[in-house]
Amino acid sequence: MSLTGKHILSSDQFDRDELERLFELADVLVPVARGEQVTRVLEGAVLASLFFEASTRTRLSCESAFLRLGGAVTSTTGTGVTSISKGESLADTARVVGGYCDLVVMRHPEVNSIHEFAAATNVPVVNAGNGAGEHPTQALLDTFTLHREFGRLGKTMDGRRIALVGDLLHGRTVHSLMKLLTRYEKMTIVCVAPEELGMPAELLELAEGRGHQVEVSDQPGQALREADVVYATRLQTERFADKPVPYSDDFRIDRSLVERVCREDAVIMHPLPRDSRPGANDLSADLNQDPRLAIFRQTDAGIPARMALFASVLGVADEIRGSLREARWYRPSFTGPDDAPFYRNSTR
Predict the structure, then answer these.
(1) Residues 69-91: pLDDT tens digits?
(2) Looking at the domain assignment, is residue 159 inside a domain?
(3) Which of 6, 238, 9 has its CA nearest to residue 116?
(4) What is the pLDDT of residues 177-219, one digit of tens each?
(5) Which range of residues forms the domain containing residue 89?
(6) What CATH number should be reported for the domain holding residue 170?
(7) Is this structure's pTM higher than 0.85?
(8) Same domain for 183 and 290?
């Protein structure tokens, strides 16, 4: 199924064949994302970047991805600086903005917002997070990261044991990722959370209905054993209002826990941001030197994955390979001083 002209609102839209096509294109685009090659297939196209909720990685990587493809970006952040603060509806905003651009990327704190917005415009709309609902482009880059990590380790996606840990009730990233994982075969998906923050029942039923084994646990020390992937998420405090937060120290994923229970070839991921302050019950900064920690390889994957998606939605994916040329500016041989040796070698 072609993605050209489609709204991208949910991970449900991607089947396995589409994922493999996107990842094949994203692999080609990695040197462009790193600034080593150049393409201008979207020269003249305009992205409207609308973020009505806080964002660092998603906003900047979506905008960078569009710019790397040769397009231009116009943006706004927060409702207070838009006419929504004057009472304008999302539908009116969508109709207006659609006349200014070729593609919209939007984040909004309300779950139904993205559907209301998309219904009011024929310009393709990409969901960059709708409250506690979904985050399909994050799930796309997460699965692309796994595609690359497992390739490095000589593994395939099928038959893997994936542990999702943390606030699984409010975490839109794991909601979308759960849907993509079920596109593969014979997965074991371990949902590790306090009972009050467990994965929504409909997503557990979806995975089981597609033939996967699902385990539910509130004990990370036991559930992470033999996992091929540990995917941690932060506590979504902004979704709680004034309700108490049932979250114990057991959910702190630190070096002590990882060395005690995790496989030597495990892949440790997190959609970020993480709370890396001492004592926080999140993914600890004391793992920063551990080569199993893939969080920055994960963020780097966001650019080529989103480039592949934008090129596909705007119908220029087939032009990518013939358009590439070498970049002329300076780029470091690897991105950060803490990059694992195998990652450094792959960028030379």
Answers:
(1) 999 999 887 655 455 555 678 89
(2) yes
(3) 9
(4) 999 999 999 999 999 999 889 999 999 999 999 999 999 999 9
(5) 11-134+302-342
(6) 3.40.50.1370
(7) yes
(8) yes
